[in-house]
From TrEMBL:
GO terms for cellular component: mitochondrial outer membrane. It is a multi-pass membrane protein. The chain crosses the membrane at residues 50-74, 104-126. It is an enzyme of class 2 (transferase). The gene is LOC112223751. GO terms for molecular function: carnitine O-palmitoyltransferase activity. This is carnitine O-palmitoyltransferase. It catalyses: (R)-carnitine + hexadecanoyl-CoA = O-hexadecanoyl-(R)-carnitine + CoA. It is found in: Mitochondrion outer membrane. The active site is at H472 (proton acceptor). Keywords: Acyltransferase, Fatty acid metabolism, Lipid metabolism, Membrane, Mitochondrion, Transferase, Transmembrane, Transmembrane helix, Transport. Belongs to the carnitine/choline acetyltransferase family. Residues 1-47 form the Carnitine O-palmitoyltransferase N-terminal domain. Its EC number is 2.3.1.21.
Amino acid sequence: MAEAHQAVAFQFTVTPEGIDLQLSHQALTEIYLSGLRSWKKKLIRLKNGVITGVYPASPSSWLFVVIAILATMYMRSDPSMGLIAKIQEHLPVSQSLSAQCQTVVSAVLFSTLLWFSLIFTMRMCLKQLLSYHRWMFEQRGKMSNTTKVWVALVRIFSGRQPLLYSYQGSLPNQPVPAVKDTVKRYLESVRPLTTPDEFERMASLATQFESSLGNRLQWYLKLKALWASNYVSDWWEEYIYLRGRSPIMVNSNYYGMDFLYVTPTPIQAARAGNTLHAFLMYRRKLNREELKPWFLMSSVPCCSYQFERMFDSCRIPGTITDTVQHWQDSDYVAVYHRGRYFRLRMYSSSRPLSPREIESQLQRILDDPSPPSPGEEKLGALTAGDRIPWAKARKEYFSLGVNKRSLDCIEKAAFFVTLDDDEQGMMGEDPAASLDRYAKSLLHGKCYDRWFDKSFSVVIYKNGKIGLNAEHSWADAPVVAHLWEYVLATDSFQLGYNEEGHCKGEVDASLPRPQRLSWDITPECQEQISQSLAVAQALADDVDFHVFSFRDFGKGMIKKCRISPDAYIQLALQLAYYRDRGMFCLTYEASMTRLFREGRTETVRSCSNESCAFIKALEGGEGVEVCRRLLRQASEKHQNLYKHAMTGAGIDRHLFCLYVVSKYLGVDSPFLKEVLSEPWHLSTSQTPVQQVELFDMVNHPEYVSCGGGFGPVADDGYGVSYTIMGENMMNFHISCKHSCSQTSSHKYGGQIRQALRDMLQLLCPDQREPSRTDQSQTKKDL
């Protein structure tokens, strides 16, 4: 193929006359430009490394300190109190250097040491300031004088114009809670879920653990906290994600959806052109660290380390544990279409391809009539099945030759792209059902047309809809959501399309065609692919999904009732579950711990004594005032639990790490074993909109994403993801399994709608009734 020849810089042939060397000037030019681009990026990283390394000071402040010291010496004053003279005595310089020059050199050295000392002091002060979390527990709108002083000091010690990673060295380490406090909180969380006899048994196990093994395990954990950046995150990534041997499709990966009501263009290649170019724009900002750090209260920075492995990363299967490999600056993406894999270069002459050029290149792939080679079409099923068979197949069939080269091309790509022949989105006579199909397509597709090991895979549908499937081990959903928000906004509001729906700009006709990847899949490997596909297909077919937008009211109305929107939704989810199953359950809500260095998530045990008391009162027919009071108490309790989780005083990560230490020491703890084996029948997560400034919800309310979701955590439970969009909309993604006769995503969705309305009617009885359409949909689901 022509593109294969263009990729070769030189060829040689041995003839009777000698060696015939043929050079490809075009290839050599591309190699030169690629190297030039690589060196530019290295210089940018070096510059950003210096800026981040001296933050919260700036490199120019060094010059200010040097000038200040020299100026005071010129005024016959010694600010070093004799240290400059000491440095001059031990200065290994030539005798030819004058005394005045030696004094200047010594002063510069002293100024540099003083500058580094000031930076270290400012960092330590900022770290201590950021360890203060009492502000989070104060009543909204009533800031104490202590917190006001604290905010002022944080702003003083924080530098100006921070880069993405500027605060990493100033963030505090995540504290290790006391065993006594964690055990107390745990017992409080399980009291409403256990009988008196069961609770007494757990209390006895907890007391025994606290007084004996707990202190020993805690000592090792504190030792790790002193040594490591975060005492939780590395173990959490390894044991929760990478050591899991079941399929990551459905069980671990999650997805993000396109705009709900708008498709900017119906042309598949055009939508892909803008989308992929927007990803390149984001990666450029990420490499230059031009993305703004995420702040709470506009002053408190959050950790950004999860952004580091966003691009050029892939999960590599292993027999015992997987690993996450990260490469530097891949200049291409891997594309899948109709069973074929392609390598699409995203740069030409050291510049990124324009959206119109990407569209043209992808159209070439769409028009390519070549059939897939034997075993190629469903190769991706290996990443969707069990991990051990995939690890063995990778070692046996993909460690040499053409298969290794093609697999390397996929794994080292910037990201993965699927050009899907299906049409998805909210459409047709039954838009609700179409959203459910859209969610399932993004979650698992056909089980072989995504590369589930890549950090994320972009899906471009035939009708112009797009979506994203992300692997979970390298980062949590808010990080991927930040990327997705930027891509959606850039595609529609910055890049745009021409009148025909194509990308704007011109096309360089000399661009080489996308390169088709070659494979040599043996019959034995094809058999393993079929087995993995069977496992993945059974898992995918068992997923029951329901997605809906709740538009009766949103956070604006909830805030008018003086209640937290997240607490309101969590109580509604528990009320709906109680009505659905007639019982309470252990409820998981993910909260972030990014206030600490390399922090990820913590669990909020949303089902509390207060929430159960409210639901029992409401369902038991208690008076309105009683129910309203209990609802507010439950909301305040939930907010308190959430704040404790965010500030490092959660329950589950601490117990998890103690369990890991016990396994390393080879000791058994009945208490920890039972705690870690408890199933989460209701697993929930909110994905907040982070870059509100990118979207105009007032003038363009149609440009709203439906959010994203994930698969069920327990075989007999629900997975619920929700996104609060603007002031008047909340989107829900509900998953469960068909194989469990006690769960139904549509029925539970109807219960959620009704619970949201009933709670508002309780808080604000004068609110309007929902529309007939909404009522009929609720009755249909119920």
